[in-house]
Design brief:
Strand 1 and strand 2 form a beta hairpin. The strands form two sheets. Strands 2-1-5-4-3-8-9 form a seven-stranded mixed sheet. With about 180 residues, it is an alpha+beta fold. The protein is globular, with a radius of gyration of 16 Å.
Length: about 180
Amino acid sequence: MAERLVGRPAPDFSMETATGNGQDFGTAALSDYKGKWLVLFFYPLDFTFVCPTEITALSAAAAQFKKLDTEILGVSVDSKHSHRAWINTPVNDNGLGQLEFPLAADITKSVARDYGVLIEEEGIALRGLFIINPEGEVQYQVVNHNNVGRSVEETLRVLQALQSGGLCPINWKPGQNHLVAK
């Protein structure tokens, strides 16, 4: 039975990364994001067909996330070398081009397993997205089938709702009134 993560401390992680510039390697640990919001997203594999649409859309929106004091980290079970090769592959050849955030290598699949998104029998992750607050607590999670991409606009809307501190009704957007708790 799946265990909920929302409202609990985010599972700790430390992974090697390929930086978004496609040249360097680094590391990413949950502790690196202390004091900031984090959008942590999992995708199945490099060089696939839905994944680049999501990854490049998140990269294009990175400045909007930065304005909200939010970092982005992408994760798959591929190696940092595969990530770098994909970043350095031209977009018209199913590549990513340069990104505004790193891609992390979950070679051991332990992080995907800890976040409840690993498809054990296939050895890949589902499309899981987690918003973690500056204190390291999971505030939001959505997991969907690998055939369906996620919405950057909805991720931004939910992030802003979480940051607002109010009760946000359906389709709430910044600038709208919050519900009043009774």
